[in-house]
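Standup notes
- HV: blocked on the assembly model, inputs below
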Amino acid sequence: MTTVSIFGKGNMGQAIGKNFEAAGNNVSYIQSDSPKSELGDIVILAVPYPAIRSIIEGYKEALSGKIIIDITNPVNFDTFDELVVPADSSAAAQIATLLPDAKVVKGFNTTFGATLETKKVANQQQTTVLLAGDNQDAKSTIGNALEGSGLAVIDAGSLKRARELEAMGFLQISLAAAEKISWTGGFGVFR
Amino acid sequence: MTTVSIFGKGNMGQAIGKNFEAAGNNVSYIQSDSPKSELGDIVILAVPYPAIRSIIEGYKEALSGKIIIDITNPVNFDTFDELVVPADSSAAAQIATLLPDAKVVKGFNTTFGATLETKKVANQQQTTVLLAGDNQDAKSTIGNALEGSGLAVIDAGSLKRARELEAMGFLQISLAAAEKISWTGGFGVFR
């Protein structure tokens, strides 16, 4: 059993939390009015990207050494035409720079909330969580913790691949926003 | 019926050509030793990215005004860890800059050759061609020309989205190269 702390209890936070719970882990949520508490082995940042900096400032010491999953898609919601992070970087890489002692892993940003709830994309293809991070043990710990959740997990490589995962997440959101796909559909992964 | 000229007759060029032929279009291939000839309504650049510049130099006038489909994934094959185009741009955008009078569309870079042959990803989900380009008529012409091919086509937005399509193509290639997925699988699109 792994302890999991999730910042944010929106659609994504809850859908992710249910999966970790289904796999037998101990999940707790931290909201903006929560009292300061210990953090679990895995910490999930399930808040919009602009909210992350204040979490890091408020929990900097507690986050040190933790496995941190960044699920954000740092879309510029004013233009809906680009990301707000540098084009050769990623939200996850920016977070890793702010938290050099943490093990930052990108994940859950290419899976719509509905597909985490049903464990299927478009009720057809098993939902796959793509992980990118430089710490192999951290990715293994996440993968092991999700065993039995009903989700598939694939190691997508180093933290540099977070750039590509975020591009894919942005593309998927823009397709759904344009009603080319539905929010229950999107990209399924086939091995 | 649309006339289609395909530069390159490798796996991708042939798989794409068969789809246009199956949909009733007139397809011809141009290889490096081909004599200069007229180009069709749709021109497909199905060569590795580094080979495109010499095609543009050799056919600059003939390409003017044409619908051009860029299928490349401009991966840095030395490092296999980044793309060779600027991070905020794309191969398609670079080509559009070199050919300002052409209607450049990104497409077929997120579909492995095998999935174009079988029209299915992992023999399960219909293969979808994602198109990005600034000229709506060009994208419609391509979509109409592929009707009856067995492929699905989705307009993924403006040419700026080629950045995201190329990131997704790179990610898919890197997953297959790492044997996390097979070359007959990859990303399926679910509406």
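- HV (later): unblocked. The two ends of chain A are 28 Å apart (CA to CA). The beta strands of chain A are 3-7, 26-30, 42-45, 67-70, 103-106, 120-121, 125-126, 128-133, 152-155, 186-190.
- Next: hand off to the docking folks.
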